[in-house]
Structures are given as structure tokens and as C-alpha cells.
Specification:
This protein is of the alpha+beta class. The protein is built from ten helices and 21 strands. Helix 2 packs parallel to helix 3, helix 6 packs across helix 7 and helix 6 packs across helix 9.
Amino acid sequence: MATDVKVPTLGESITEATIGQWLKQPGEAVAQDEPIASLETDKVSVEVNSPVAGTLGEQLFKEGDTVEVGAIIARIGEGGAAAAPAKPEAAPAEQKTGEPEATVAGGAVNPAGAGEQLRPREESAEAHDAALTLSPAVRRAVLEHHVDPSAIKGSGKDGRITKDDVLAAAKDKDNAPAPVEAKASPAAPSMPAQQTSAPSLGGDRKEERVKMTRLRQTIATRLKEAQNTAALLTTFNDVDMTAVIEARAKYKDLFEKKHGIRLGFMGFFVKAVALAARDVPSVNARIEGDEIVYSNFLDVSVAVSAPKGLVVPVIRSADAMSFAEIEKTIADFGKKAKEGTLSMDEMKGGTFTISNGGVFGSLLSTPIINPPQSAVLGMHRIEERPVVKDGQIVARPMMYLALSYDHRLVDGREAVTFLVRVKEAIEDPTRLLIDL
């Protein structure tokens, strides 16, 4: 008797998701609680586990399909692994005739004889199956780097090709020696310059249409909503990072030895924001209807780059945390973001956002607020610049800061005051200890 696999509850107000990838194929044995599929929601990816041990039978939806909470997406049969049913895309072997079959490369059907550079005709059944089960991310990488998936040995589960496998194959292809061109025969007359034909623009001029992930659609909607609703304005300042850099250099080894985590810049900025928000509470507030809601706590949304887009997990009550607690929380969020294991609860709420574009080399930007928050602080890269100190031109490690805010709630004077308070705390970290 088959057991239904249903879409689990995905969190408050989330009623549907998209099937991102099937992790198991029909006919494969599955253990109880083993993931068989990943779902993409508006915020995070969620794995669907098998409720029982058995064999994966029918898949009722394809990758990219939208499914509702509670929908049956697959069925688990009893017993061990059985032979996988034939995929509808592949013709049975006994039906082969003198006419070649159509093959699949990178998710696109390639009729025999057309575009043979995508896949050799004499491909093995194993390579053919691997191409058919490429995930969207791997398929995109194959097309971007123009590599042959049938020539790649997969390192993933059950021999599946991963994105890292594709990137490694592309690197090997780039490092391969260029073919030696045949030299023209001395007896052959040289072609006059005016007879040289124009170079062809053909070859790798390709386009690919990829459906936006649910996460990317949500990011686009929310950012556009912020532009359409809020009265966005950005104010800038620069900060001398000398004191913070010296403090890190002096205490980083002791800090890591005691707390098991490296001392980073973000801890200083979170503490500085907490200090500044006490003087300017409007940056930590939000508008609801015709009311302003002020929070006496600081829940900081930290923008983290994930493989499928930017996510903003929340550091709860950051104003009451120590440096070590802040750094440990951020490190944990970064790891989960890369693995796609951030939970819904970790993404909810947030009263203020800090975005660090400096890790990617950004010099200056105008960040967009994360609704319904009223402000976001943008950090940027540190670089030595000439500044005047006591009448002397000296080199200092400087960083530009940008505060974008909703002018409906935060006045310009308050925004500038807040940014100055952050600057003062970073340039003199002692203020963070004595609450100045």
C-alpha cells in the first residue's frame, strides 16, 4: 500500500511553494525522514521528508510546479528499491531503429543531428540519465560555461552532477592547451588583405529563459513596494576605522580563544546602532496605518547573501547581546544561508536592517529599506584615503556609511544625528562600554 507524501505546513501566511528539486527519483529506496524533494517558498527553502521507509513511486509534480500546503506530491511504496520506471522523455532501448533518438542537454531537447556539439551521439545510458536529472542551478551553469554534462563525473548523492562539478569542468576546459593551427603551405599564394572575409557572429550567441524563483519574485515585489510606498531618502557620512581595527588586532586572539568565534566588524556596528537608536528612536519604529509603532528593543535584520538571493535573518534583542553573542549569531546565520536551512522564525520580524556591501567591494550605495522598517544602514569597503588630522594630511582606513530611511517617519535632522552617533561610537569604541 502506497503512502502519500504531502506538502508540510510552511509557516504563517504561506499557502504555497514551488518544487525546486527532486532529491530522489522514482524507483529509488528512501529511508524514513529522508529528504526526497526541496521546496522554495517566499523566504527560504524547505525539504520534504519521506514519512515512511520504502521506494519512491509516482512523482505527481515536476520541478518548477507550484504546489499548495497539504497537496500530495509523491507516493512511497513498500519494500526496497525497484527499477526506476522509464522516463517519458527517453524512448525504450528496444524501439531504437536506424534513425537516431533525440537527446537532452542542459534541460533542452536536442533533435538528433541538430546542434550535436551539445552532446555526443554515443552517450552512455548513465550519462543520459544524469543529464535528465540536472537541477535548475546545475543546468544554468552548464549553459553558462558551455560544458558537456555527459563528460562530467558527478560528486553528488547517487552520482548526481553538482554546480561545483560543472565549475571544475569549466576551469579544466579553460586551462586546456589551445589546438595548434596548421601552417599554410609555402607554395600557397597569400590572400590579399581586401579579400579577407568578415568574422562570423555565430557560435555561442545564445539566450536562456529561466523562471524566477519564488524567493527572487518576493524580493522583487517587496523592494518595489518599498519604493512605491515609502518616501525614501539617503544620507551619507564616512567613518575612520582606525580605532576598531586596532581593537580587533589587539584582542582578536584572546577573543577567539575565549569565545570560539572571530571578532568581526559587525559586532561593533550592531552595538553602535543600538546606542544611536536610543537617541533617535524613530529609526527603530514603523508605520501601521495612521499610527507609529515604537519598539523598546532592537531586532536587527542582517542582510546575508544566499545562493538564490539576499536573505535577512534577524538578531533578536541585539541591544542586549554581548559582542560574542552577536558574532556567533551572525556566523550561524551565514552558514545556514549557504546551506539553505534558515527557518521561517529566523526570518520573521526585524526593526532595523544592516547591509554590508563592503564584503563584495562596494564603495558606496543607497540601500532600500526592508518594509515595514523605516531605516537601513549600509556599510561599505574600507580603503585608505588622505584625510586632514590636526592640520596634517594623513592616510586613514575610511569607510562610507549610508542611511536610507522613510522620510514619512524620520526627519533629516534625526537621520543625520543617528548616523553621527554611529560614527562617533565606531571612531571611539569606548563609548560602547560607557553608554555615551
